[in-house]
Every structure is written in C-alpha cells, then in structure tokens.
C-alpha cells in the first residue's frame, strides 16, 4: 500500500461508519419509502443497535432529523419561488408552495400513511423540536416582511406563525384529521383570509 502510516489511518477512518453514515442511510431509506428500522440500520452499518442509538438517539429523534433535512430545502425552494412578491402575497405563496410540495412528496406522505400516530405526534406536537423549528422559520419570514414595511401582522408574530403552521398542518394532514383529501389550494385560501391578502 502506498502512503504514510498516517495517510493509511486517515483513509481507514473515512470508511468507518459513524453518526453521519447512519443518518445518510436512514435518509435514503426514508426517501425510498421504507420504514426506518434501527436493527436494519445497525446491520447495514455493521455495528450494534446500541451503537446506532448512541450515535443518533432514538428512532423518533433520527426520524425528525431526517424529515427536517428534507423540510428545510423544501421551504427554501418555496421561498425562492415567491421571489418578487412582498408582504402577505409572499407568505401566502410560500406556505401554499410548501404545503403542495409536502403533499406531493411520496416519501413524506408514505411515512404519514404508514405511521399516522407517530407522524402527527412528532410533527405537530411538542414531542419533538420539529414543529417549533418550522414555526421559527415561518416567524422569520413574517419578521422579514414586517421589517420591510410590506405588511402589518394581524396578531403577534409568534402567535401568527403558529397559527399559519396549524393551517398548513390542517390541510396537509387532512386525511388523518378529518378524513378529507390533503389540499394545498385550501392552504392558500385560508392564508389569504388570515393575512388579509
């Protein structure tokens, strides 16, 4: 083998599984529509289940990290698609596009259909940090529009961000909550009413 002892050790280091390897495999499984199983993940990595838990925490914690890794770029794309819009129109566009992309995601909606109770608990309650982080991102969008003088929020920003998120949840998870069909158009309509667009 060519190279120094250190270079061989560093090369060796790169092929060893670690928390990032576990995350990458979990993300791939999620995107392929497979149920995330910690035992399978450990076997694929060639480590014990206890090691995987030590690296990534619980199955729920790993799921939330994986879902957030897909949510964040989805929200960024929705924001980019609203370029040129200001105030309420921008927020209605962003939230509608975000809801539409979420509903159109086979991996995300597959997870929601496979594990509805877990999905609602992890994504819409304080059981994880997911909802608060997403509400924080929405609150930041509100702050940008308010500080630019493009809108005057009808409620305190924190409360308004939470309500906007609840509207998205109501129509994205409509099949679980009310037996209705998920509908991003209703998100846009409700946001328009709320934000007085």
Automatic annotation (TrEMBL):
GO molecular function (one): DNA-binding transcription factor activity
Pfam families named among the record's database cross-references: TetR_C_36
The keyword NAD belongs to this UniProt entry's keyword annotation: no
Membrane-spanning parts: none
Domain QsdR TetR regulatory C-terminal: 86-196
Lineage: superkingdom: Bacteria
Gene3D superfamilies noted in UniProt: Tetracycline Repressor, domain 2 (1.10.357.10)
First and last residue of the signal peptide: none
PANTHER family: HTH-TYPE TRANSCRIPTIONAL REGULATOR BETI, HTH-TYPE TRANSCRIPTIONAL REGULATOR RUTR
Protein's UniProt name: Putative TetR family transcriptional regulator
Species per Swiss-Prot/TrEMBL record: Nostocoides japonicum T1-X7
């Amino acid at each position: 083998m060519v190279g120094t002892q250190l270079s061989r050790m560093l090369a060796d280091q790169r092929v060893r599984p670690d928390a990032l390897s576990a995350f990458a495999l979990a993300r791939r499984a999620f995107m392929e529509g497979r149920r995330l199983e910690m035992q399978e993940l450990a076997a694929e990595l060639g480590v014990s289940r206890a090691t995987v838990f030590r690296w990534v925490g619980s199955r729920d914690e790993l799921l939330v990290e994986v879902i957030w890794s897909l949510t964040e770029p989805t929200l960024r794309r929705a924001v980019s698609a609203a370029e040129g819009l200001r105030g309420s129109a921008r927020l209605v566009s962003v939230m509608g596009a975000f809801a539409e992309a979420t509903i159109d995601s086979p991996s995300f909606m597959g997870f929601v259909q496979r594990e509805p109770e877990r999905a609602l608990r992890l994504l819409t309650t304080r059981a994880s940090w997911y909802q608060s982080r997403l509400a924080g991102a929405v609150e930041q969008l509100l702050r940008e529009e308010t500080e630019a003088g493009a809108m005057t929020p009808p409620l305190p920003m924190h409360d308004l961000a939470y309500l906007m998120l609840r509207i998205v949840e109501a129509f994205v998870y409509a099949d679980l909550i009310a037996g209705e069909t998920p509908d991003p158009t209703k998100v846009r309509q409700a946001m328009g009413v709320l934000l007085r667009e």
